[in-house]
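Write out this protein's structure.
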Amino acid sequence: MATKLSQEELLAQFENLTLIELSEFVKAFEEKFDVTAAAAVAAAPVGPTAAVEAAEEQDEFDVILTGAGEKKIQVIKVVRELTSLGLKEAKDLVDGAPKPVLEKVAKEAAEKAAESLKGAGASVEVK
């Protein structure tokens, strides 16, 4: 005969599930007992698992110039290539670092832009 689990023991078991596994469990629970658990789904576990999955879902990134380095002219040229800024605006952006060069771009575009800027000698962050 199966032993009855306490609420704390059940919560400890749910804590180890991924969000997908928890979602499948909720669906099975709803079907078995003919109920809806909309509030329980909205209260997904908050913790390391949720933070990791939220990071995986990020699809927009910002490329931030944190420093021009020693080759400031090369960095200005790359900034002009990446944006539609004129020479003066690109120079002002590089001089005013840290400033965003690109905002809300795809991951691939952000990585390419960061590589180009680093290749020119700049310090870059992708957020």
